[in-house]
Structure formats: C-alpha cells, structure tokens
Amino acid sequence: MSEHLRTALSLATQGVPVLPLRAGKVPFGNCPACAKNVCGGRPNMRTPGPCACFAPCHGWAAATTDPGVIGSPAWASAWRNAATLAYHPGGAGVTVVDLDDAAAIAWARETLPATRTVTTTRGEHWIYRGTVQSANAVRPGVDVKSLMAYARWLGPGEGVTAALTGAVRALVVKEPPAARRAPQTLSVPLSGQQGACPHRTPSYLERGIAMAEQRITAARSAVHATVYRTFLAVLSTHGRCGCLTDTHAARLFTAAQAKGESPRHCTDAWTNALTTLGL
Predict the structure, then answer these.
(1) What is the DSSP letter of 9?
(2) Which residues share a beta bridge with 229?
(3) Helical H runs in the chain?
(4) Which of these, 132, 128, 171, lies nearest to 149 by C-alpha position?
C-alpha cells in the first residue's frame, strides 16, 4: 500500500474527502468512458449524478470518504502513479486561504484572524471552519479554496482552527455591476409604506438572507424542493424592491451547492422562481 493511499484512508475515516493528484498537482483525466464528460460528469462529491464511473475522473467532484471506493481496483492505477494527495475543503467543512508567497503571508497576518496554518512549498495554507464559494486570485498571491475546489494535503498543520469570519468571506465577494441588480421599482405599493421600500434597512435584508441560508443548510431530504421554495420565498419578499443583489444570490447558491446542488440546478431553480413570480 502506497503512503498516499494509506494517508487517504486515514483522512477518509475523519470525514475528509480525498483524491489522488498526478504530476503537476493536477487531477487524473477522464477515463475513456468519461472522455469529454460524455458520461454527464459528477456534479458534486456527495452524489455521483448520471456518471456511474468510480475512477478519480472528475477532479474535485471525485473526492470521497468511501474507503471502498478509495481502495477499489478502479483507483489502484491512480494511486500507483499519484504524485501527491488532495482533498475537497468544502466537503470537509473548511475553507483554505492559499497564501502563495511571503508578501501574501504578511498581508494575512495583518488582516485575517489567526487560525490553523499548514506550510506549503512557497507559502502557507490558512484553514478556517466553514465554507464559501472558491475563487482564485482574490488579491496578489491569494486564492480561496473551499466549495468546488481541491487543495493539496500537506499535513494537519499547527494551531487552532478558527471559524470563518466576515474578513475571509469578503475576499470572494465582488460588488455586482449596477446593471445586474433587481428592478428598482415596486409593481405594487407596500402596505403601510406609501410605496417606499421597507427592505433597505440592512438588518432586515441580512436577517432574511441568513434565515434562507439556514433553511437550505438544515434540509435533510427533498433538497431540490427546499432550495426552490427558499428561492421563491426570498424573491417574493425582496425581488421587486431593488434590495436583492448578485452578492445575496451568490450566498444562497453557495448554501445550496454545499448541500449537493449543482450550479445548473441552482440557476434553474432561481430562473423558475423568477418566472413563477413574473419577475
């Protein structure tokens, strides 16, 4: 048994989804049956979707905690040729802030809360408890790896893992263009407001979005239906007044994808909700 396979099996018992990487720190390519994703791909690591192939064919989406898959004959060749081991941070419930050089590390020490750190070849990984949408080059020398991404496993690191804070979340949030905002006029006046929008109080909107995220996260079954109903509820309350921005929608999409929804399913649910409400 190779060292990478032994480590992978150990991590899997701790709930960390793993996958092998080949030289160059890149995933293994599709097998012949999955070439060019003709199989339909695997939209997330929790459900295989239309693809029944259990080879490590689909990058981060192939990451798994199933020892039967990790040690299966389908993965044997990959382990024999693996150059390193990776894991899916989002699937493990964490976010990795990848600091690529000394300047990025210095910035993080001045800006971000202290947390568990892992030394890399050129810099450090700062690990936080919680998930966000991944993003590359959020600032010079800094990537954020969490949902729908993989990171190299370089050991457990040192220190105590801190909870994800606004300072980390802000790294992946970009101000949406004004043209992408929801319509700025109401189709009907709001009761008691004489046509004025009551949702511009930041705390009201923030509470609504937080409750929607919580509803999606708490779903134990019928996730598709829960996501759609939640999108519908948010849009029915905030979709006509101009308060809702792409940043808010991204938070809801992130929560849905953390429950296993694909980006396409999120987009379809959002579009259907807009259509139902005539927005």
Answers:
(1) H
(2) none
(3) 3-13, 67-70, 73-81, 102-111, 166-169, 202-217, 223-238, 246-258, 263-277
(4) 132
